[in-house]
């Protein structure tokens, strides 16, 4: 079996070439030996409720508010408080509406076409790293706040609420063998079983490769609270060319016209240098873009497994929301998920 395993979508030869390309990229930060807590046994929810506000993501001149609250329902739920007759939207692959056209983002919707929330990835990704299984996020519109500190405001809000444990067991899932989806831009994502069956964890090997100052970046790490909090400051990155597009031709499109992006809440890279100061510098190299890709984008797709947590190893190269969500869809269409306990019994 090749490293990519079973290919559920994409061209096999192109994926092999992309694997070789990624494997040739040096690892900028290898945290694979970082000790992490064993998997939790029982489900959790928030111990309290809190509210945070910020400028709108798609309506930057308007203030938007979200409330994080405990839930007796399993999973994460998005509740449009401004649509009182609409049911909460469960965070799950079945409720993905689109991954955006001009502005790449995950949009979740349920029932009424007005009952949607855009740019949910920077919120729901935290389901994978903050140790909270069940929660409801209440919105005052379909446009969430955009914070200057990435998702750190949300992380701190979750921490301020505390944790309440229940007696319900956590459901863990994995895959029996590596599975891969490939895109049309040399991009791919692979899900594989846990690297260490004796101490199963969720681990990530992610790399990006841009023709801008971002260049090539690669990190390997286990998903845990400490690294989730550290990486939560990573902002969405964009090119200087796209900034000029948004300021000119982009004004013709509703999704772009009122974007709340600015030099404080977005990382901007020119061809040879950053336009604003990058974050998450390690040994002299800015790794903000690859941390954002790994923790706040890729894990948002993994959070779309609605009834449990994924445990295994993920390898991602040059991918984005569209391919991430396609992977999750193919995962269910091909019935590839298995209970972790079942997999571990087979490798004893």
UniProtKB/TrEMBL annotation:
Enzyme Commission code: 3.5.1.108
Reactions listed under catalytic activity: a UDP-3-O-[(3R)-3-hydroxyacyl]-N-acetyl-alpha-D-glucosamine + H2O = a UDP-3-O-[(3R)-3-hydroxyacyl]-alpha-D-glucosamine + acetate
Keyword line: Hydrolase, Lipid A biosynthesis, Lipid biosynthesis, Lipid metabolism, Metal-binding, Zinc
Family annotation (InterPro entries): Ribosomal_Su5_D2-typ_SF (IPR020568), UDP-acyl_GlcNac_deAcase (IPR004463), UDP-acyl_GlcNac_deAcase_C (IPR011334), UDP-acyl_N-AcGlcN_deAcase_N (IPR015870)
Enzyme class: hydrolase
Signal peptide segment: none
Domain of life: Bacteria
Pathway(s) per entry: Glycolipid biosynthesis; lipid IV(A) biosynthesis; lipid IV(A) from (3R)-3-hydroxytetradecanoyl-[acyl-carrier-protein] and UDP-N-acetyl-alpha-D-glucosamine: step 2/6
Keyword NAD in record: no
UniProt cofactor(s): Zn(2+)
Pfam families hit by this protein: LpxC
Entry's Gene Ontology molecular function annotations: UDP-3-O-acyl-N-acetylglucosamine deacetylase activity
Annotated function: Catalyzes the hydrolysis of UDP-3-O-myristoyl-N-acetylglucosamine to form UDP-3-O-myristoylglucosamine and acetate, the committed step in lipid A biosynthesis.
Protein name: UDP-3-O-acyl-N-acetylglucosamine deacetylase
């Amino acid at each position: 079996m090749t490293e990519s395993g079973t290919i559920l979508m994409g061209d096999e030869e192109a994926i092999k070439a992309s694997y070789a390309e990624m494997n040739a990229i040096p690892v900028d930060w290898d945290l694979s030996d970082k000790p992490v807590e064993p998997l939790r046994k029982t489900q959790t929810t928030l111990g309290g409720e809190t509210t945070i506000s910020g400028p709108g993501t798609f309506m930057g001149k308007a203030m938007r508010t979200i409330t994080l609250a405990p839930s007796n329902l399993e999973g994460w739920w998005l509740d449009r408080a401004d649509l009182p007759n609409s049911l909460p939207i469960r965070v799950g692959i079945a409720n993905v509406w689109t991954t955006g056209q001009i502005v790449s983002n995950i949009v979740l919707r349920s029932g009424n076409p007005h009952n949607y929330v855009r740019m949910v990835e920077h919120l729901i990704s935290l389901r994978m790293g903050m140790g909270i299984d069940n929660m409801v996020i209440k919105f005052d519109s379909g446009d969430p706040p955009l914070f200057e500190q990435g998702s750190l405001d949300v992380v701190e809000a979750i921490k301020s609420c505390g944790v309440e444990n229940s007696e319900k067991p956590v459901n863990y899932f994995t895959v029996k063998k590596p599975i891969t989806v490939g895109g049309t831009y040399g991009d791919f994502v692979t899900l594989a079983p846990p690297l260490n069956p004796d101490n199963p964890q969720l681990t990530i090997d992610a790399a990006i490769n841009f023709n801008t100052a971002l260049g090539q970046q690669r990190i390997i790490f286990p998903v845990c609270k400490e690294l989730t909090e550290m990486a939560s400051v990573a902002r969405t990155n964009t090119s200087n060319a796209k900034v000029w597009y948004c300021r000119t031709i982009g004004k013709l499109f509703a999704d772009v016209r009122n974007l709340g992006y600015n030099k404080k809440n977005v990382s901007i890279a020119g061809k040879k240098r950053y336009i604003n100061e990058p974050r998450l510098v390690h040994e002299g190299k800015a790794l903000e873009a690859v941390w954002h890709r790994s923790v706040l984008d890729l894990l948002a797709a993994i959070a779309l497994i609605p009834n449990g947590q994924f445990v295994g190893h993920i390898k991602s190269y040059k991918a984005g929301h569209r391919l991430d969500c396609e992977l999750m869809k193919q995962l269910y269409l091909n019935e590839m998920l298995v209970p972790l306990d079942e997999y571990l019994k087979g490798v004893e």
